[in-house]
Amino acid sequence: MIDNDSGNIKLEHGAGGEEMHELLKLMLRYFNFTNANASNNSNKWAKAVIDVPLKALDDSAVVDNIVFTTDSHTVKPLFFPGGDIGSLSIAGTVNDIAVMGAEPLCLSVAFVIEEGFPITDFERLLESMKKTCEDAEVAVVTGDTKVVERGAVERIIVNTSAIGRRTEALEKNMEEVRRYRELAGNWLIDSNLRDGDSIIVSGYLGDHGIALLSFREGFEFDTGLQSDIAPLNRTIHEVLNVGGVVAMKDLTRGGLANSLNEFSLKSNVGILIEEDKIPVRESVRNACELLGIDQLEIGNEGKLVMGVVKEKASDVLHALWRTKHGKDAAIIGSATEKLGAKKLKGVVMKTQVGGMRIVETPIGDPVPRIC
To answer: Which terminal CB of the chain, N or C, has fewer other CB atoms within 10 Å?
Structure first.
C-alpha cells in the first residue's frame, strides 16, 4: 500500500493491476472532486455536473453529458506486427470513449519526442494514426509537441485525449435493458452488472501482448500472429442497436482477469466463467504455457468484454458475429450471487478438467510496455 512518500514508483504501478490501483488511491486523495450541486461539494468553482467521476475509475468520465478520456502510450518497440504506437494510441482512446456507450467526436494528440528521433519514423507514425482515424471516422483537432534532450524519454511518448457524446443507439440499448430489469445509471459503467447477466468477449484474447512480446524478445511462437489493434466504435454501435448491454470494457492492461475483477468489485456480484468457452488461439496458449504467463492477464487492444442481460445475450452475440471485429465472439459465463450453496465473491473459473479456480486481480500486466 502507498501511504507516504517513503517509497518509489515502480513499473507495476502503471501496469493495470493491484499495484496500479494503490497508486490511483493515492491520486484520489487529491483529485476526489464532486458535483457542483452536491451538498458536500468543497470545490465551488466546479460548476459542471459530473455524471461519471474520476473516483468511479471507469474508462472515461462524463461531465455535463460529454464523455472525456485521456491516455499516454509508451510502447516498446514502437513498431510491431499488426501495428505501432501511433495506431494503438488512436484506437485505444477511441475505444475508451465507445465502451461508455458514446460516439467519439474528436481527438487531441500530444508528442514528447527525444532529440534525434528519425523524421522518417515520425512520418510513418503519423500515417498510421491518420489511417486509424479514418477507420474510426474521428478527427484530430488539437495537440502539442515537445522535443527533449537525449535520454530524457525513450524515443517518443504519445498522449491522446478524446471527447464523445450520447447516441440514439445508447438510448435504445438502455430502454431494452429496462424491459428486463431495473437500471439506475445512464451509461455503460462497471457497477451496472447484476446477478444473471451474461458475460461476452468479442474475440480471441492475448493476440496483442504475445505478438508484441514475441517480436520484441525474438521468440518465434507463431510467425503469423499479429496485434489485434482496432477502433471498436462501429462494432459497439451495432451491438447497442440490438440492446441489452449494461457494462463494457476494452481488454487492455491486465487483460480479462483485471476487467472482470473490476466488474465484480464495483457491482458487488460474483462472476463465474468457463475456461473451455474463452477464445484463445493455440499459439497464444502455447506461448503462455512456455513463459509461465496467465493468458487471462495479457493485454489486448482490439477486444471487448461486456455484461448483457441474459434475455438479450444470444442476440448480442449474433450481432457481434456480423461485425468485422466480433466474428469470434463468445459467451464465457455469467454474473452470479451464488456458487452452489455459497455466496460467490470475485471471479471464479470452471477449468477444462472440471475444477474451480479463483481468478485474482493481477498485480500488473505480465507483458510490460505493450500500450
So the answer is: N
Closest CA to 272 of 345, 190, 363: 345
pLDDT-derived band at 35 (thresholds 50, 70, 90) equals low
**Backbone phi, psi, residue 312, to 5°:** -110, 0
What the block records as the C-alpha cell of 349 is 473459473
Q: Name residue 297's beta-bridge partners.
A: none
Would you state the cell numbers that stand for residue 26, as one nine-digit string? 493515492
19-44 core/surface letters (b: 16 or more CB in 10 A; e: else)? bbbeeeeeeeeeeebebeeeeeeeee
Strand order in the sheet with 356-358: 245-250, 304-308, 198-201, 330-336, 270-274, 347-350, 356-358
- How many other C-beta atoms are found inside a 10 Å radius of the C-beta of residue 360? 16
Per-residue cell: 18: 493491484
Q: Could you tell me which residue, 213 or 229, shows the higher pLDDT?
A: 229
Dig out the grid coordinates for 198 from the structure. 451474461
* Whether the bond into 77 is cis, omega within 30 of 0: yes
CA–CA dist 158, 229 (Å, integer): 16
Question: For residue 219, what pLDDT band results from cuts at 50, 70 and 90?
Answer: confident
Q: What is the pTM of this model?
A: 0.91
Sign of the torsion formed by the C-alpha atoms of 34, 182, 232 and 268? positive
Grid coordinates of 47: 460548476
Domains along the chain?
A: 52-165 (3.30.1330.10), 168-358 (3.90.650.10)
- Among 72, 39, 67, smallest CA distance to 53 is for 67
Residues 95, 62 contacting (CB under 8 angstroms): no
